[in-house]
């Protein structure tokens, strides 16, 4: 309804402040008495701390305190925990090692915080941090997951024998093995999902204030979920009780998952403010610290086998995955390679038997946790590389093989927990093939070959799960929190509206899309609607934003609250207009009696609610309603991506000639914002496929630790994306929304790699397909040809 | 960043005097390399002596084929100077592809060659153009000036004032950028200086690839003197043993790139 309602391309309200430099990020906040924290970090991947000498540093100008891990734990600050319990297949709980916000005995990755220096100025704190003398006994560490499990590998945590955190499985192994025995064909792949640095534009920051008179803390921080941060800071880390701790996540410049977790720095700044007796401490990561301490993403090694019958129908899938979780278990690290990954191994296909075994290990690297897509990109990469590889081996067209196996009846129960509720996989495949002019690829390839270039085309038919809900289900799978969302709709006496949401916007555009719901409902202009989020003192408890849940879950909560507001407003209007409640209509900012010319302005009804002069008998004054919404299922966005590449065999440079995305996100609130989310996701997925790689050397030093060595996608690396949508509504929530925040990053890497391997004519290619890797693969292919 | 004293030199003599007087001075030009290094606390000069306010030191003069470029000329100035573009478009084009607009509008040719980053673009041009580096004390040929990785013949308190060369008959620079940093992973500057028909004068400068920094590829020069065409380089081999190897490119890959870029440069030089 209307130009600013559901489905309208409303320009992003928040962009005015963002693009004019008027955003208010954590580091933009400054307070009276503010001091600065600098962390002393380990230069070693693995070492025993022998002694920390702070004598000289303490004498330096402006230094008010230098604290270490022993003091932190001595004050009762709790260890950092992983909030999702996963059990090994033998029934034993995961082997979580201790993670103190400041290392006490050992450091386990380069960047591990050892001490904090608090100074009056940043320069003073930096100088003193350099003068802190830490005496280490350097130990031999381990970097890769395979090495970590090897016999004789250094043992990183006493809790985790052989560095194994858990050895988990899903699916029926015996049935799957049996299916393989009767199979006509079996296809195998070995793949590696590269490790990524999340790189939000705004680095992490914390401003911790301590009010000694009230014994009350306020934390401004770069968080995707301030309420969860407050809960965890208080219940587990014992920084302060919840009622004595206010957490504010103001404007946040991107998160991609990395800002879900509660990191050592926030904990330490809060604790140190009180300990040092200062009013406030600020810490802002520099880019180097972001590389070394933001939770990394992915880092899987997998072996997979898929079995087909004589009609090319899939009869089974067996997967073995090894996931590197880094030096410590981050907040949701255990769920990513398990319930967010293996539950999607059925892809868009009917696969009667699936078994996956996932082992997770500790290594001397940055902790690994959810990063845009979280588990689903890993599943999609495996399934979609497999489907294309299988099509080549079986000698049929990759689209054909997919169609042969598509799920077409809903609901569809997979053998790996998920029950798909709706979808039309043929529709997105058709749309993508048409948009990419798939049929004429051969002509374009011939043209490229004439120029001495190689050309390939690849597809990926992804399905993912968003919303992460309902609470009871995720609880039964080990989640430590509920995964619903809350909303409060406050109508002011003049008819303007504030929506308080437990979702958190860090680039998604909630201030625009959430307002569209209200606009749509009451016909109000969006400038009359304010979205409030990110402050535990203002907003009722909420779960925050990740897993593309703000639309499906957060907006559904708003819808429920709007239902209640609408119902009450109608009651009031019916009373004022002396009409039946059922005849009241709210439209274009007016409240009228259907079929008559009797009407009131929306603001008149609102004012009526607050004067209380003429309300139905027994009704409470005011117009403000809240709702907590817990969905019935995950949502299942799906789609088809087609990528076409041209490769220069002389240099290995891959250029993406076209990229087509056909997504089914269910109901779309704002197509422009959805396109933006897809563009961003595709850029990140292409970044993973072609460029990004958090490479460590054997000693555990991160080699790609700055933009000089870590390649991010640039505009010139990306084609003009052709994006479109098909629509099947999600039956699980009132709006029919599925979610669109991660799909681009989930679906695109296999499309790119399938295109490159198509051009190469063989599968021997490691991701990322950097020029060097592609050149080597071209050389290897050439040698193969020569040998044949 | 550590604390440091900042001063502006009025003229060349003043610059040298200030440098001598300081404990541990560093000349500052565009600051595109020096300032990030200081911010990372990897350099701690007691004094920064800014050369960019010395009048006329950024001048670019072209007289017939004779070119002089002042040390504080920015990459953007080299890229867009109309006279230079006319006589030596290959150098302008090289400058136009350094870094990003910010870097090009701050970074200087003097700072770049004094820094002699093994992945910097200019050094290859200096070698191929047979440029003369003019310092506040002396003149020396580019081949003598570049000594090794991040090493030049510059002595204490000495700085680059200008560079001069005779524009070649034709030339081109082909660069394979490091995918992350966009510095050169293999940058080949080929210059055809004319000479006689029997003895054409070709110079080839290569940056980004070698363990020893920028170098002159005499074998390629010889092959090109016989036949100034890309395929003339088919018979040349690039020794992998001398190539850099890192996460972006193995020695074998770099050796390949050197040859591919050399051929592209020859093709572009025509
Ligand atoms: C993001 C980025 C991308 C870049 N990409 C490229 C690229 O693609 N290709 C490339 O070649 N370069 C690249 N650079 C480097 C850039 O060209 C720098 O400008 C150059 O390396 C240094 O020049 P400057 O004027 O900034 O020198 P400064 O940083 O001021 O100084 C560099 C060093 O030289 C000394 N110095 C400065 N001027 C003189 C002088 N006249 N005589 C003697 N010593 C002097 C200084 O003391 C210092 O040690 C890049 C830099 C950045 C930040």
Descriptors for this entry?
heterodimer, A: 788 residues, alpha+beta, Aldehyde Oxidoreductase, domain 3, Aldehyde Oxidoreductase, domain 4, 3 domains, 7-stranded mixed sheet, 5-stranded mixed sheet, 20 helices, 28 strands, globular, B: 270 residues, Uridine Diphospho-n-acetylenolpyruvylglucosamine Reductase, domain 2, Uridine Diphospho-n-acetylenolpyruvylglucosamine Reductase, domain 3, Enolase-like, domain 1, 5-stranded antiparallel sheet, 4-stranded antiparallel sheet, binds flavin-adenine dinucleotide
Q: Briefly, what is this?
A:
The complex is a heterodimer of chains A (788) and B (270). Chain A contains 20 helices and 28 strands. Chain A is an alpha+beta fold and 788 residues long.
Would you give an account of this structure?
Chain A is built from 20 helices and 28 strands. Chain A has 788 residues and is an alpha+beta fold. Chain A folds into 3 domains: 31-139 and 201-254 and 259-293, Aldehyde Oxidoreductase, domain 3 (Alpha-Beta Complex); 300-468 and 633-787, 2-Layer Sandwich (Aldehyde Oxidoreductase, domain 4); 484-629, Aldehyde oxidase/xanthine dehydrogenase, molybdopterin binding domain (Aldehyde Oxidoreductase, domain 4), CATH 3.30.365. In chain A, β20, α15 and β21 (529-532) form a beta-alpha-beta unit. Helices cover 29% and strands 23% of the residues of chain A. In chain A, α15 (510-522) runs parallel beside α16 (549-577). Chain A starts with 14 loop residues before the first helix and ends with a helix. Chain B has helices at 12-21, 34-39, 75-80, 82-87, 89-96, 101-106, 109-115, 122-128, 142-145, 218-226, 251-269, and strands at 5-8, 25-28, 47-50, 60-63, 66-70, 132-135, 139-141, 146-148, 151-152, 160-166, 170-177, 184-195, 200-207, 215-216. In chain B, a hairpin with a 4-residue loop joins β12 (184-195) and β13 (200-207). In chain B, strands 4-5-10-6-7 form a 5-stranded antiparallel β-sheet. Chain B has a 4-stranded antiparallel β-sheet with strand order 11-12-13-14, with helices on both faces. In chain B, strands 1-3-2 form a 3-stranded parallel β-sheet, with helices on one face. Chain B folds into 3 domains: 5-50, 2-Layer Sandwich (Uridine Diphospho-n-acetylenolpyruvylglucosamine Reductase, domain 2), CATH 3.30.43; 60-166, Uridine Diphospho-n-acetylenolpyruvylglucosamine Reductase, domain 3, CATH 3.30.465; 170-269, Enolase-like, domain 1, CATH 3.30.390.50. Chain B is globular. Chain B has 270 residues and is α+β, with helices and mostly antiparallel strands. The A-B interface holds A 123, 126-127, 130, 288, 650-652, 691, 693, 695, 703-704, 707-712, 770-772, 775-776 and B 1-3, 40-41, 176, 179-181, 246-250, 253, 256-257, 260. The structure holds flavin-adenine dinucleotide. Flavin-adenine dinucleotide binds next to β2, α6 and α7 of chain B.
